Amino acid sequence: MALASRSAGAAPLWQVHSTLARSAANGPGLRFVVWSQGCSLACAGCFNPETQEPHAASARRVKTWSTRWPAPTALKG
User: Fold this and answer.
1) Which residues pair with 59 in a beta bridge?
2) Rg (CA), the chain
3) I need a labelling partner for 40 at 20 to 30 A (CA). Which of 15, 48, 55, 67 fits?
4) What is the dihedral of CA 9, 1, 51, 32, to 10 degrees?
5) Could you tell me which residues come within 8 angstroms of residue 70 by beta carbon, excluding any fewer than 6 positions away?
6) Rounded CA gap, 39 and 68, in Å?
7) Could you write out the DSSP letters of every residue in the chain?
8) Neighbours of 34 (CB within 10 A)
């Protein structure tokens, strides 16, 4: 998970590149998918190179992102 730097005691921040409400292509079953922003590995042949830049997404509190997730009963997998 790409966590942005934060001050001690503050809520954790998450840099999210994008989300997909429902996907059958990212694992078995129907899933909610989150792509984090900021990967320093720069692997050859990376499938999502646009997610490598560490500051391309806005950082938000983890709790803010979690309110966007569908209810677990809406997903299978």
Assistant:
1) 15
2) 14
3) 67
4) -120
5) 21, 22, 32
6) 23
7) --EEP--TTSPPEEEEEEEEEEESSSSSSBEEEEEES------TT-S-GGG--TTSS-EEEHHHHHTTSPPGGG-B-
8) 17
- Across the chain, mean pLDDT equals 79
**φ, ψ for residue 46 (rounded to 5)?**
-50, 135
- Tell me, what amino acid is at 61? R
Task: For residue 15, give both structure tokens.
Answer: 């840099």
C-alpha 33/C-alpha 70 separation (Å) is 11
pTM: 0.65
pLDDT at 49 exceeding the cut of 50: yes
